[in-house]
Structures are given as structure tokens and as C-alpha cells.
């Protein structure tokens, strides 16, 4: 099967010639022909059960297997046998599948949860539902890109884990951030009103759960793909030297705001705070771009149909114009510019906020190309690892767990600012002495407003939620049936004996997601 990169490159080059190419994309159908969507669990037209098969990257119709609680893809009755994720009938309403013979009860995406919200608090079920919906979009994209997604078994092993936590009984708000593979999210971010308020306070043009996840996961993949790996020197050339004092850099950022000319070099004001944040912000935009362009192409939306001339980016802006994928990348980024321009206009025609309230200066496009190369290399490495044993003399692209352990620590308390100009903690209050500057309360120095316009935004899969004839995710289902929070992957969600107390680990020890690891402060200041 061709890789995602082969597929999207062919489709974007070909767009306008063919109406639609479903060879690999974001459009799903029930076997009865009904259009269905990423989060659907059943088809309303024919009542078929639906499940997301992460290896295929598709929502498929299911038929019952011969054993109880097993399923096969309806179109492949003799094919692989699956079971449904144990979080199906919980507020998470997870529609993912896993192999029936897996020792796990939760799908890959749900296995990544280390702490989930306390479901004895009535409103937490709905918050968790939204969080999991965004997280599944994230994980599905990472898998589509071919990036390694490995659950953390123990801290510092190079794996990935999520803590979804609220304010503690002592009133301490958790800081959204990343440290050594652990992504912490303050569940208040799933409250739309709270998040909108925070976005206003932070003067951010954009703040979403998916944006938070895409930003934080960028820090994780810095550990995995950059730290101590062959790309490190290239990274420093493109983004600056990450060894400058992180805490100090953020402090300066909060006190002084972004440099006046930030928009010429960065995707957001926050990106100008430190090379790690520049990477995470730009990484998030790379994921935004790839997912949205992929979705637009899946629906036959051609950048060539956009009736407006944009000056396309050329090799001149690339960090590596000789890279074999340089032309493919340029086509994707130019499609992104054309599509987002139209989508912004569509948003304005509806009186909505801009779909993509950002501008892409040439240096950011260069950084995006660097990320494209890194992601492709990471993807190719994973696929080599999966097919054959890794040849020893091959330079490893993955920086590995050891590197991951001593680096990270950034972002505690990150305003999550996926793409915001953000700063500040999520609550702006009582963060305690250990909070890092990223968790500092918003300062009045509103950095220059993010550029409002220009290019961008392709239609996407939201096409039909309202009219969607297909069974919506069954939210609410499980507050009653799931009095216990599955704290981690090793525990079956339904029978999970572990109490789900916010901030408490499965073994009863207090989880302490609010303790921010100290920022790695290494010497060697370097100019941004
Ligand atoms: Zn159907
Ligand atoms: Zn799941
Ligand atoms: Zn960050």
C-alpha cells in the first residue's frame, strides 16, 4: 500500500483532473452506502455497527464474529477478528477496534490514558467525551502519518501517555503541558465557554482541544525525532538553539510580549518565546495543514478551483529545496494557502470567526518543510522497523527514550497555546510555586494581534454533523454504567476496580500531574 505521503502528493498534484479519489482519505461509507463519519458507532440507515480500524484508518461496517463480543469487517467475513474498545459504552464513546486476541481491553488511543476525569462529577463525562473525540482525531492522524505511537508503560520509557485532570481539591489547577511523553490537559479546556474566555484573555486567534493536542504532541515528537538525532543541527538552524534557558525565555516573553516583527518569522507570538515553542506551534500547524488538505482532497475540493490568484511559495522559501519531496511539499502548502483563503471568506460570509486566522510568512513555510522531512523520515523509519529487523548500521532517526528523558520539561502549564499567541496558565490562578513561566498569568501586554487573514481553510469533515443521518456518538451512555474511571490501559474499563478519582493513580497514590517538571535549563544561550 502506498504511504500517506505518496497518496496525498499524488492527489494534490492531480487535483482538478479527477473528481474525487477515495483511495486513501477521509470519506467513509457504511456498506449500505450511507455516508458515515469518523466518530460514528452505528449506521442509522441500516443499523449496522460501525468501528474505526486504526490500521486501515477507516470507519467500517461490522458484522458479529462467531465468538461473543467479537466482530469482523462486514466486507471481510473471513478476515481479521476484532473486539470493540472497552471505552465504547463510556462517555468516551470510543468506536475504535482492536484485535480480538489482544491482551488489551482498550484500543490504542484509549490505552494512552493514564488519568481520566473523575466521572462521579456529573459534568466531567461530557468534558471527557469532547477530550477523547479530539484525542482520537490526533492519534488517527499520527497513525496515518506513520509516526510511532507507543503507550508509556513507565515514566521515561519513551512512550506516550495522557493525564486529563481538573482542579484539585486544594484548588490547584493542573497545567496543560508536556513532559517526557506525558501530556497533561486541564479538562476545563473542554468547556467551550471556559476555553473561549481563556482565548480572549490570552488574545489568541485560535484555541481548540485538537490544537492543544497537536501542540503538545509536537513536544513529544521533538524528543522522539529530533533530540540527539541526525536532525538536531538542522533543527537549530531552522528554529534556533533550544539550549537557551527555557524559563528565562518565557519570562521575558510574558513580560515583554513578542518582538514587533514576530509575524515575519513565526506562526504565532507564542512561537517566538523559545525554539521549543516555535517547534511545537509550527508542528501543530503542520498537522492542521496535512489533515485539512487531506480532507479537502478527499471531498474532491481542488485548490485549482479556487478563483483567486495567490502568489505561490517557491523553492526559495524552503530550508532544503533539493529534498526529493520538496515539490510535493510546495504543492501541499500552496493548496493550503488557496483553500484556507476561501474558507476564511466562507466563514466571514456566515459571520463566523476566520477558519484559519493565521498568516504564513516565508520563514514559517521553510520550517514547515523541515517538519515535513522529519515526519517523513520518522514514518519511513517506523515502516522499516515494522517490516524487517532494523539494520544495525543504519543511522537511527529516532532519538530514543534516553534522549526523551532528559530533555523535555518544557511546557508545563503551557497555555496550550496551540497556535495562540498564548501564554499563561489555563486558569490564571494559584499555580503554586512550581509553575513554570508558561503557567504565568496572562499579562496585559497583548502581543500584536495575530494576523487575521490570508489564506486558507479548506472545508472539512464537519460537513454533516447537524444533518448527519448516522448515529451520533453515544455520549452520555456511560456515566451510570461506568462509575469507575479506567485509569490505565491495563485495567478493563468496565470492571475496573480502580476508583476514578481525579488526580489519583490506579494504585491509590496521588497522581500529581500538576507538578511541573523543571524546565531543562541548559547553558549555551543562543539567539532566537
Ligand atoms: Zn448502513
Ligand atoms: Zn478506545
Ligand atoms: Zn508548548
Automatic annotation (TrEMBL):
InterPro entries xref list: UCP012641, Zinc-ribbon_6_bact
Region (Disordered): 404-446, 500-528
Domain Zinc-ribbon: 28-120
Superkingdom in the source lineage: Bacteria
Protein name: Zinc-ribbon domain-containing protein
Source organism (scientific name): Pigmentiphaga litoralis
Source organism phylogeny: Bacteria, Pseudomonadati, Pseudomonadota, Betaproteobacteria, Burkholderiales
Amino acid at each position: 500500500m502506498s504511504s500517506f505521503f505518496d497518496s496525498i502528493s499524488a492527489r494534490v498534484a492531480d487535483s482538478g483532473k479527477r473528481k474525487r479519489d477515495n483511495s486513501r482519505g477521509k470519506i467513509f461509507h457504511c456498506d449500505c452506502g450511507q455516508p458515515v463519519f469518523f466518530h460514528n458507532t452505528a449506521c442509522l440507515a441500516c443499523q449496522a455497527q460501525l468501528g474505526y480500524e486504526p490500521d486501515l484508518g477507516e470507519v467500517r461496517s461490522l458484522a458479529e464474529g462467531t465468538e461473543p463480543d467479537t466482530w469482523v469487517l462486514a466486507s471481510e467475513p473471513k478476515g481479521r477478528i476484532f473486539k470493540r474498545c472497552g471505552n465504547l459504552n463510556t462517555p468516551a464513546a470510543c468506536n475504535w477496534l482492536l484485535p480480538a486476541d489482544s491482551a488489551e481491553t482498550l484500543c490504542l488511543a484509549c490505552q494512552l490514558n493514564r488519568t481520566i476525569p473523575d466521572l462521579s462529577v456529573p459534568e466531567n463525562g461530557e468534558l471527557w467525551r469532547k477530550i477523547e473525540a479530539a484525542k482520537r482525531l490526533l492519534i488517527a492522524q499520527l497513525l496515518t502519518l506513520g509516526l510511532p505511537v507507543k503507550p508509556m508503560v513507565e515514566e521515561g520509557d519513551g512512550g506516550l501517555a495522557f493525564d486529563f485532570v481538573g482542579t484539585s481539591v486544594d484548588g490547584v489547577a493542573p497545567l496543560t503541558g508536556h513532559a517526557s511523553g506525558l501530556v497533561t490537559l486541564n479538562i476545563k479546556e473542554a468547556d467551550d465557554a471556559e476555553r473561549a474566555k481563556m482565548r480572549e484573555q490570552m488574545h489568541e486567534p485560535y484555541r481548540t482541544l485538537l490544537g492543544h493536542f497537536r501542540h503538545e504532541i509536537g513536544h513529544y515528537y521533538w524528543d522522539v525525532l529530533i533530540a540527539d538525532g541526525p536532525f538536531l543541527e538542522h533543527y537549530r538552524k531552522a528554529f534556533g538553539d533550544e539550549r537557551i534557558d527555557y524559563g528565562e525565555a518565557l519570562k521575558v516573553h510574558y513580560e515583554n510580549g513578542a518582538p514587533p516583527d514576530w509575524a515575519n518569522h513565526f506562526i504565532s507570538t507564542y512561537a517566538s518565546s523559545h525554539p521549543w515553542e516555535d517547534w511545537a506551534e509550527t508542528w501543530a500547524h503542520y498537522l492542521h495543514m496535512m489533515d485539512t488538505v487531506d480532507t479537502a482532497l478527499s471531498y474532491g475540493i481542488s485548490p485549482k478551483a479556487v478563483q483567486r490568484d495567490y502568489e505561490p511559495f517557491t523553492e526559495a522559501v524552503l530550508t532544503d529545496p533539493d529534498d526529493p519531496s520538496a515539490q510535493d511539499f510546495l504543492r501541499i502548502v500552496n493548496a493550503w494557502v488557496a483553500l484556507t483563503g476561501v474558507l476564511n471568506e466562507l466563514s466571514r460570509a456566515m459571520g463566523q470567526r476566520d477558519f484559519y486566522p493565521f498568516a504564513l510568512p516565508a520563514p514559517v513555510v521553510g520550517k514547515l518543510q523541515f517538519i515535513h522531512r522529519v515526519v517523513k523520515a520518522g514514518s519511513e523509519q517506523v515502516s522499516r522497523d515494522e517490516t524487517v529487523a532494523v539494520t544495525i548500521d543504519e543511522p537511527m532517526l529516532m532519538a530514543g527514550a534516553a534522549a526523551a528523558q532528559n530533555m523535555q520539561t518544557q511546557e508545563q502549564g503551557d497555555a496550550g497555546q496551540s497556535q495562540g499567541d498564548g501564554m499563561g496558565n489555563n486558569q490564571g490562578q494559584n499555580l503554586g510555586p512550581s509553575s513554570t513561566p508558561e503557567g504565568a498569568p496572562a499579562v496585559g501586554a497583548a502581543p500584536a494581534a495575530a494576523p487575521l487573514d490570508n489564506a486558507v481553510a479548506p472545508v472539512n469533515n464537519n460537513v454533516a454533523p447537524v444533518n448527519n443521518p448516522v448515529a451520533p456518538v453515544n455520549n452520555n451512555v456511560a456515566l451510570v454504567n461506568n462509575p469507575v474511571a479506567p485509569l490505565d490501559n491495563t485495567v478493563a474499563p468496565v470492571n475496573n476496580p480502580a476508583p476514578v478519582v481525579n488526580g489519583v493513580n490506579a494504585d491509590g497514590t496521588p497522581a500529581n500531574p500538576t507538578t511541573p517538571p523543571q524546565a531543562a535549563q541548559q547553558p549555551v544561550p543562543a539567539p532566537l
